[in-house]
Amino acid sequence: MQTVLIDFQERVEEINRYFAFLEKLGQETIQLSVLKDDGQRENIPLDSQLIKTLKANSFLLLYNLVESSMRNAVTAIFDELKNQRVSYNSVRIEIKKIVIQNFKKRSPENLHFKIKDISTDIIAAGFQSQELFSGNIDQREISKTARNFGFSFNTEYNKTKHGESLDMIMNKRNDLAHGNKSFAEIGKDITVEELLKIKEEVIAYLEQILNNINQYITGQDYLDRSQINDR
């Protein structure tokens, strides 16, 4: 899970650099220039359409952060179960259901060579990280994932707004990805200031969700406590 948190921070830094650039463009404290054939630089007037496009691109960056962070975190849970050789019988009922659902999607030809000890190998054998979310993750999906695994989705509302803006981010991202709207259309109705606020809330929300998952893993909350107490 530590690699997930490190990757998250690196992506956040990348996003912060982009938003800092976008903010300076909006404040007209930065200029774009090109190098001419004679070696002189020529300033390029900031085109309003370009700024709209850059604002719209913010939704792609934020959505990328959301989906990659959650995919990596769920993968980390399965990696932990695999590395610790946790048996199917010892995990909580929520995970047993996920394991069975994953297993039902696989053909025997693709599974038999992965399984040596069915009690432990069954958990990871059916898991495929590339199937997670696939362009459709918002606050509701994260809450659903939390319930499915049994980790907390509680966050500090004053900092995160509980991920309320994730639905808009997902919809804008999908409109762009599927060509339903142009970048200029997406970017024209939102200000840089509004985007900065959304960015801070999303980062705070994801950070707290990832910390919840980290606590879930380190505390071995994936285990069936009734099994432990009966020993």
From TrEMBL:
InterPro entries: HEPN_MAE_28990. It comes from the Bacteria. Residues 3-222 form the MAE-28990/MAE-18760-like HEPN domain. Pfam families: HEPN_MAE_28990. This is MAE-28990/MAE-18760-like HEPN domain-containing protein.
